[in-house]
Amino acid sequence: MERNTLQKKLILDIICNSKDHPTAEMVYNEIHIDYPNISKATVYRNLKNMASKGQIKKMEISGDFDRYDCNDSHYHAKCINCGEIFDVDVCYQNKLDKEVLKDHDVY
């Protein structure tokens, strides 16, 4: 049986409360503010383990760092102009909101 550690809780809280789909480095930097003794290796190892167990989603993005997200059902879009990755609600699976298309070139 695996233990639920403070590190795992912190990582999960950051990922699930983030709107910008953080990279491992972003997660580390956020935790490091309040917990300066945490190592990058601990954060990276926990992210890898949590993703492999389905607790979080690892998003592999071509030409960019891997990003992480909570494990709930939704789609993602990436703006080809600014690189922003954002959630697209499932109800929009067959069409994207006009405002999104107006402000971002997505693929």
Provide a descriptive summary of the structure in words.
- This protein has helices spanning 6-16, 24-34, 40-52, 98-103, and strands spanning 56-59, 67-70, 75-78, 85-88.
- The model has no long low-confidence stretch (mean pLDDT 82).
- Strand 1 and strand 2 form a beta hairpin.
- It folds into 2 domains: 1-71, Arc Repressor Mutant, subunit A (Orthogonal Bundle); 73-107, no CATH class.
- The strands form 2 sheets. Strands 1-2 form a two-stranded antiparallel sheet. A two-stranded antiparallel sheet has the order 3-4.
- By secondary structure, it is α+β, with helices and mostly antiparallel strands.
- It has 4 helices and 4 strands; from the N terminus they run αααββββα.
Q: What form results from the Cα inertia axes?
A: elongated
DSSP summary: helix tally: 4
- Span between N and C termini? 41 Å
Show unreliable segments: none
Topology of helices and strands:
Layout: H1 6-16, H2 24-34, H3 40-52, E1 56-59, E2 67-70, E3 75-78, E4 85-88, H4 98-103
Antiparallel strand pairs: 1-2, 3-4
Helix pairs in contact: 1-2, 2-3
Please give a handful of descriptors for the protein shown:
4 helices, 38% helix, alpha+beta, two-stranded antiparallel sheet, two-stranded antiparallel ribbon
In a nutshell, what does this entry contain?
This protein has helices spanning 6-16, 24-34, 40-52, 98-103; strands at residues 56-59, 67-70, 75-78, 85-88. The protein has 107 residues and is of the alpha+beta class.
